[in-house]
Amino acid sequence: MSTNIASATVAAPATQPAAALEARALVRRFKGRSGAWLTAVDHVNLHLAPGETLGLVGESGCGKSTLAKALLQLPPPDEGEVLLGGRKLSGLSGGALREARQGLQMVFQDPVSSLNPRRRVIDIVSEPLRIWAARMALDEAMILRKAQAVLGEVGFDPEAIGARRPHELSGGQCQRVAIARALMLEPRVLVLDEPVSALDVSVQAQILNLLMDLRERRQLSMLFVSHDLAVIRNICDRVAVMYLGRIVEVGRSQEIFSAPRHPYTRALLDSMLVPGKPLPEQEVITGDLPSLHAPPSGCHFRTRCRQAQARCAEQVPPLVQGPEGQTACACFFPLSQAGHAQAAATGDQGSAATRPI
Ligand SMILES: Nc1ncnc2c1ncn2[C@@H]1O[C@H](COP(=O)(O)OP(=O)(O)OP(=O)(O)O)[C@@H](O)[C@H]1O
Ligand code: SF4
Ligand SMILES: [Mg+2]
Question: Which ligand is nearest to the CA of 304?
Answer without folding.
Answer: 2
